[in-house]
Amino acid sequence: MEARTRLSPALLGWLLAGPAVLFLLACFVFPAAQTLYLGIGARTEAGVMQYGLTIENYRRAFATDLYWRVLLRTIRMATSAAIVAAIVGYPLAWVLARGRPWLSRTVTLVLVTPLLVNVVVRSYGWSAILSRNGLISWVLQGLGWEDPPAILYTEWAVLIASVHVFLPFMVLPLAGAIGRIPPSAEQAATVAGAGPAQRFLRIILPLSLPGLAVGLPLVFSLTAAAFVTPQILGGNFSPLLGTLIEQQVLTLHDWPFGAALASLLVAMVLLVNLVFIGIIGRRINRWAQA
Amino acid sequence: MNTTRRALLGTALATPFVKPLAAQQREISVGIWGGAQGDYVKRQIIPAFERDFGCKVLPEEGFTLANVSKMRATKDNPRFSVMFIDDLAIPIAKAEGLIAELPWDRMPAMANLYPRFLYEEGFGTALGISLGGIFHNTRVRPPESYAELWEPRYRGKLKLVSPNNTPSMFFLIVAAAIETGKPFAEAQYEIDKAFDRVAALRPNILNIFGDGIQAANEIAQGQADIGLVEYSKYIYPYTNRRAPVTMAFPKEGSFAGTNCQVLVKNGPHQDLAVAFMNRMIEPAVQKGLSEFALTSPPVSGITFAPETARWIAYPVEEMDKRGLFTPDWTYINARRAGWTERLNRIFSL
Amino acid sequence: MSDRIPWPLGLVTALLLAIIVAPLLVPIAMSISDTPYIVFPPEGFTLEWYVAVLTEPEAQSALLVSLKLAVVSTIGAMALGIPCAMALVRLRFPGRGLVQALVLGPLVVPLIVTGVGLLQTFSLLGLRGAFLQMWIGHMVVCIPYVVRSVSGALATADPTQEDAARVLGAGPVAVFLRVIWPQIRPGVAAGAIFAFIISFDDFAISMWLADARSFPLPLYLYAAIQRFFDPSIAALSALMVFFALGLVLLIEKGLGIGVRRIAS
């Protein structure tokens, strides 16, 4: 007993994390690295892959404005989706954490439903709502706007559809965090005369940061990696980098260039994620010490 | 069949780290298409073949674009014996050493194959040809010429095929033909001149579609008037069931969309694989496949009832009469990446 | 302790829920249309598309494969993910930053890269058996969700309670079961729900690894759409929703109080 509790944090840490780490090294890092390596280990001529060290793929990715502009769009879109999901997610998370059981359950089920409907099938629904003769246009026309712009087949449609399906990845962690805030804290604030806005900023927001540290990276990464939604709902006018990677691999049979684009995306998204998690983690610590 | 499948699944689940016992009979995996063609192969052709040869054929109905990638990924230890791929991918698969030459002597049905449907001097045969053209809602009168599609009256009313799909190369050839006034066969070598013409079409395009079936549905529901360019095999099944969408072939000509089969190099049980490929091009099988999927057979000597004949271009003289055009894929493959980049730049920035 | 929901918040919630559901009603409406192809709004009314889907043996076996796959992948991802999350949140050990990045990896690497890489690796090793391959692949993509969700829960749990229990002589197992587990249950439930749905809905990994014997539902659905888009596709989608929602409820129940509540 004594001995076990005296296990050094380093040893215990590796004992606990070890199985997952080994599994991911063998079944994720090795396979993915094998593919990503092609970015410097091969190049494609007329669809035919030729091995040999080269920097040509990266040179092309950086030299062509198309790719870095689409990369920037990808980061912009993923950031927007994460922020919108957080804004939309807070009220839902609060209701989920504090509402009556039937209400919580309803919110949870409604939230996860979009994930279960195939994206092609789902897109028919969006088409009926967002297209030129869809529901929204109809309402806007009724309100006196003569020729409202169609939302379908624009970047907006991609944003809306991404938030729609990835929202549970924001709300469930947020609800978990809000659920751990003692209701007495909010009541105390109310007694002290704090309005709803102040209660949110002073109590709920800082105390739910751990939930945000889960939700933001998930929504950001999922949106950044999406490749079907931009094609179907964005009408292919504003593809994200994932779409172009898929095009390189499946259509042009150019795995090496696809690998180069993919590694740029990975580096970018991982960087943003670790910064996110780092900043929020520091906040949490600062608050814990205070 | 279903019970054995379930039993096998059960075994796989119960003893995840033990391979299921090798079946008594020999087994080959065939990477097939989805769609009506795949359906017919799975439900009709394969069961009959299994009976005749006492073997098991596992049809892997894949994401069609992924079949070449699957061969490439499993190159060192092939899992597939036969793969169905598009005609344009055959030169690539051959150059990478993914496929083997077909043994003529063991494929008697090759005698009836039209020579134009044998690829790369014997590295693949066609299985079915469908027609590439435009599709439109039946309440819209289709244009006589592709050139009309550039007119302002089509503003926001067209759906254009995505550069991810082969017919997008047909679209580039069309644009080059309009730009230069030359027939497809010459225009295909002048695609580089056509990109201003391509960019000029942008205001007329509602969206760029990746899935012909979804586009056909949306045209049928009136979301847009015309879609370009797509294979008849995706559209005619809807026309046939009286959905308000059909194909049209402007006067510049139409394209041959050719689905092919190849023999995977070093794939398991090559003898069975060869027998299966031979079966695929036998006249009786081809007739059934063509009638079901509404594609034209690549072999001679089949007669069709009028209700099938109206959907397909057959025999080969009829294909020529309709100006069915097969592009120079070797030329196009070498340039496709660059053209795709230019298309992306026009439509996606 | 359920608070009363203030009415503006109730209104916002109702509105948001309506927006989330709205686009899903269209496919459900299409599934009852009495036409041989899909239309919206639907024409006529029939339930024959549901009968057609439910009696199709291939759809049944695809559903079975997907369910089994989702269950074993969720269990596997939790078994590896929960201890890993505990190490990441509670312990400062060398290489912690790297592990942090590693468990995010499957989330940030495009699935097409992971899928092709897995197919290549399995081919290299001569590993056959599509179900096993998909199980491994799905575990890979599910682990980040479990680790992130459980980490979030652990970060809000109170470490002083653990210390107190330890001081009072509780062993590590007892500390975990009595003190930590009740606090992280909501996070575990969220992670399990995410893992289950990600696996049940996966197309991008299965597309490379499936074979004719183990052909999961999302691939079946895709193939069916390619064959012919009739209202049975919409019916199948609606059924998928009902099935999975039932299972989500089960997960919630199975983990006790579920996502909504901390242990009292």
UniProtKB/TrEMBL annotation, chain A:
Membrane topology: Multi-pass membrane protein
Keyword Cytoplasm found: no
A UniProt-annotated Pfam family: BPD_transp_1
One annotated Gene Ontology cellular component of this protein: plasma membrane
Entries under SUPFAM superfamilies matching the protein: MetI-like
Subcellular location field: Cell membrane
The family this protein is said to belong to: Belongs to the binding-protein-dependent transport system permease family. CysTW subfamily.
Protein name: ABC transporter permease
Automatic annotation (TrEMBL), chain B:
Any GO BP: thiamine transport
Keyword field contains Nucleotidyltransferase: no
Keywords, alphabetical: Signal
InterPro entries assigned: SBP
Entry-linked Pfam families: SBP_bac_8
GO molecular function, one term: thiamine binding
Gene Ontology CC terms, in alphabetical order: outer membrane-bounded periplasmic space
Keyword Iron attached: no
Listed name of the protein: Extracellular solute-binding protein
UniProt organism field: Falsiroseomonas algicola
Lineage, highest ranks first: Bacteria, Pseudomonadati, Pseudomonadota, Alphaproteobacteria, Acetobacterales
UniProtKB/TrEMBL annotation, chain C:
Protein localization: Cell inner membrane; Cell membrane
InterPro entries attached to this UniProt entry: MetI-like (IPR000515), MetI-like_sf (IPR035906)
Membrane topology note: Multi-pass membrane protein
Keyword terms: Cell inner membrane, Cell membrane, Membrane, Transmembrane, Transmembrane helix, Transport
Short name of one Pfam family: BPD_transp_1
Main localisation: membrane
Example GO BP: transmembrane transport
Assigned GO CC terms: plasma membrane
CDD domains given in the database record: TM_PBP2
Keyword Hydrolase listed: no
Lineage: superkingdom: Bacteria
Chain segments annotated as transmembrane: 7-32, 69-89, 101-119, 125-147, 188-209, 229-251
Annotated ranges, domain ABC transmembrane type-1: 63-251
Similarity remark: Belongs to the binding-protein-dependent transport system permease family.
Name by which UniProt lists this protein: ABC transporter permease
Organism name: Falsiroseomonas algicola
